[in-house]
Amino acid sequence: MDNFTFHNTTKIIFGKGAESSVGTEAATFSKKILLHYGSGSIKKSGLYDRVAASLKAAGVSFVELGGVAPNPRLALVREGIALCRKEKVGFILAVGGGSVIDSAKAIAAGMPYSGDVWDFFTGAAVPKEALPVGTILTIPAAGSEASTGCVVTKEEGQLKRAFNTELVYPRFSILNPELAFTLPRNQVANGAADIMAHLLERYFTNTRQVELTDRLIEATLRTVIDVAPRVLRKHDDYDAWAELMWAGTIAHNNLLNTGRDGDWGSHDIEHELSALYDVAHGAGLAVVFPAWMKYVIKHDIPRFVQLAVRVWGVDQSFFSPERTALEGIARLEAFWTSLGLAVRLPGIGVGSDRIDEMAAKCSGGGKREIGHFVSLGQKDVDAILRLAL
Ligand code: NZQ
Ligand code: ZN
Asked: Rounded mean pLDDT of the chain?
């Protein structure tokens, strides 16, 4: 196991009706806040009204900025920064999914910065301070509610890029599984795929002697495999939603990569798909991950066998190690298919015509390698995308 520091500072407030405390939680940071949300699901569900009432009761006034798109855009981030400066807000409340939360994080880091916020995404600058952010999560998926990550798309050049800093750990995140009852089926499936991808990215490591985190990842994967079909069968199954929502947070709050390295190549490749085709992140991962697994399988067959046996219950007495490993990948594909996800590029409306471009962008024109479990260059990314056709 590697040395590590684990310091996740996000306060989690979990359970039925939890959003009623948002006013008092926000008031501890500022009496003037930005309320940030997406394309209207929170107005349709009545959540917006409950949040506004709770803020008012706590004496918190707010300006609002809705309209965050899935795969959040830089233009709205810039608008949010200008609004926060003009209104002198002291706190940002994100109500929604990963897209809204990431947009809020970018605004939070951009507001006190004198340069262009995109500098953080290119690596030209590192955030030194950020407004505090809080969240009310409405979809178990990205894990941004307790992560250091922030992913935004720059329209010009179709670039989807991320930065990470502990400064944007949400100060609190409110998780009420009931808020997910209104999710459309495809978003449930996309979310489940993203949660599983976060677990798998951590699972594929070259670090040895990481039995505890291996087992924790396997248990979380098995939980998602159990509960995702349940919430699709019965959209108001609170207990199943509660498991899925907590799994989504645990999968990405950095607990499960303590003492180990992860891979993250599949995420980098998926971001190119989202950037060019505006596909949902989870839907893109369901296509990229199995192809990536098949491409790198020979790097560490015992690790793939362990996953197949412990998570998918493959009986290795029937198969060679390589066949056991491949059977594990086939079961992952079958599971995602059963949720309604496509596991090949044409199923998400992507052909072969722009694979060269995606491979080039992903590897910085051939100048950078992605992935830690296996390091991949432009040719490898190209081959993985073609394997996904
Ligand atoms: O915009 P609204 O109207 O709210 O609708 C959203 C959106 O259309 C809808 N939705 C959310 N909750 C709902 C609901 N509809 C009905 N009822 C509800 N309760 O679902 C759609 C998708 O929302 P989005 O926020 O885009 O989903 P998700 O949470 O999957 O976030 C995806 C984004 O997060 C990034 C992804 O790249 C992508 O941009 N990620 C962020 C990470 C991080 N910050 O740590 C890590 C991840 O790997 C990921 O990259
Ligand atoms: Zn993800």
From this structure: 98
